[in-house]
Amino acid sequence: MKELLKLSQISVSFEGFLALNDLNLSLQAGELRAVIGPNGAGKTTFLDVISGKVAPSTGDVIFKGQSIRGKREHRIARLGIGRKFQSPRIFENLTVYENLVLAISKPKTPWSLLLDRLSKKQKDQADHLMNIISLQSQKNSLAGSLSHGQKQWLEIAMLVGQDPDLLLVDEPVAGLTDEETDLTADLLKSLSGNHTILVIDHDMEFIRRLNSQVTVLHQGHVLCEGSMEDIQKNPQVIEVYLGQPEEEEG
């Protein structure tokens, strides 16, 4: 597979505090990658650097063969990097279908809704996205009436509708039921291959269900990488993240 993203020797300093410290990571096109780490490990800053919200103090970010260091967020988005934040960012007073229409329409203006200027291809795309997230029956429902999990899926579908090469997904299962968590993992797996997806989350069962390569961050750098099975057996991960197993009383 072709390398899509490479972070090389990335460091980020906030008033002397190293949020990221000589971080190196690469992603292949079509890959699904999970990133875990304890609070303060630098996970959010890591996404901020990729999306252009934060400029690294040192190092470089290479996307599709070119440096994006120092580029503004909107320019990076146009290059093909989409980001989903932890809290769903949807238009709650619009229907599910209207949310998807806005996501795929260019330019993104309310006129596409009012004048119904979507092509058949765009309408088919909106229907396809609703099928992916199983919200066909909610097509004409206001997005604000959806469950928390359904709102998360809608935003993921809206992100996919913008056709980014790389999807950055931040804690998509926070506050979800077990069933919604499983469905979210299945959704992301179904999208990989056609899309490159980087997921950050704390839910170990969710990460395990993704069945993907896992990167562990600790104190701003990559501690280790591997399958979830390998990660859970790693003594360093057990010490800094998963915690030592409790000794039995007796």
Total helical segments:
10
Number of strands: 10
Distance between the termini: 53 Å
Which term fits the overall shape?
Answer: globular
Helix and strand succession? EEEHEEHEHHHHEHEHEEHH
The share of residues in helices is 25-40%
Q: How many strands, which pairing sense, and closed or not: the largest β-sheet? A: 6 strands, mixed
Strand order of the largest sheet: 6-7-8-3-9-10
Alpha carbon gyration radius: 19 Å
Unreliable segments (pLDDT under 50, ≥5 consecutive)?
244-250
Q: What structural category do the secondary elements indicate? A: alpha/beta
Question: Approximately what portion of the residues adopt beta-strand conformation?
Answer: 25-35%
Average of pLDDT: 89
Structural description of this entry:
With 250 residues, the protein is of the alpha/beta class. Helices cover 36% and strands 25% of the residues. The protein has 10 helices and 10 strands. The protein has helices at 43-51, 73-79, 96-104, 111-114, 120-132, 148-161, 178-191, 204-210, 228-233, 235-242, and strands at 3-14, 17-28, 32-36, 58-63, 66-67, 81-84, 166-170, 196-200, 213-218, 221-226. The chain has a 6-stranded mixed sheet, sandwiched between helices. Strands 2-1-4-5 form a 4-stranded antiparallel sheet, with helices on one face. β4 and β5 form a beta hairpin. α7 runs parallel beside α8. It starts with a strand and ends in an 8-residue tail after the last helix. The relative contact order is 0.18. Residues 244-250 have low confidence and may be disordered.
